[in-house]
Amino acid sequence: MESQIKIIQQSDSFRVNTFTVILDSLLTELNKRKNAYDKVNIKFGFFFNRTKLPLSKVREQAIQLQLEYPEDLDSSFFNECIHFRNHLSGLEDNNLPLTVLDLYKIFKDPNISSLYPYIEIALQMYLCSPVLNCSAERSFSALKRIKSYLRST
Predict the structure, then answer these.
(1) Could you cite one Gene Ontology molecular function of this protein (predicted)?
(2) Taking a C-beta distance cutoff of 8 angstroms, is the pair 44, 69 a contact?
(3) Handedness of CA 49, 55, 56, 60 (dihedral sign)
(4) pLDDT reported for residue 71
(5) CB 97 within 8 A of CB 103
(6) Could you tell me what percentage of the chain is helix, strand and coil, using 3-state DSSP and rounding each to the nearest 5?
(7) pTM score
(8) Burial class, 58, CB count within 10 angstroms (exposed 0-12 / middle 13-18 / buried 19+)
(9) What is the rounded CA–CA span in Å between residue 88 and residue 119?
(10) Secondary structure of 14-58 in the HEC alphabet?
(11) What CA–CA distance (Å, rounded) separates 48 from 105?
(12) What whole-number distance in Å separates Cα of residue 143 and Cα of residue 49?
């Protein structure tokens, strides 16, 4: 009976002191990563719903992105977004780009590239900027120390 209580106490101790701590840490790190992706989506999200968003929302988000990157995007960026949106709505459904990379491939045509230079720059910034959330990776090296400690005891 006493040995059974000791085993239960050890398993409870492991669950409280190790398992739940690891799960809490994992949940915190996943939330940090999600927040990093959400911030990028807020900045560049109107490229995903370019034909479904109302003009006022496209205007608001385009101006916000232009203010975020004033050295890269000109004040005419909003006008390009509206014009490009109308250009895309004129395409047939089977020719519409499905992803941002497909959208960027449209700019291989030099005529399109010269017509919408700031949209091309914004897409390049989006596609080339990684979402930096790798600082959390180092915290998982603590698992190695825990495993080593548990093996030695």
Answers:
(1) protein dimerization activity
(2) no
(3) positive
(4) 92
(5) yes
(6) 80, 0, 20
(7) 0.65
(8) buried
(9) 13
(10) HHHHHHHHHHHHHHHHHHHHHHHHHHHHHHHHHHCCCCCCCHHHH
(11) 15
(12) 41
Question: For residue 115, which amino acid is it?
Answer: L
Angle separating helix axes 77-89 and 117-128, nearest 10 degrees? 90
C-alpha to C-alpha distance for 65 and 74, rounded to whole angstroms: 10
In the block, tokens 């960026």 appear at: 77
The 3-state DSSP class for residue 74 equals coil
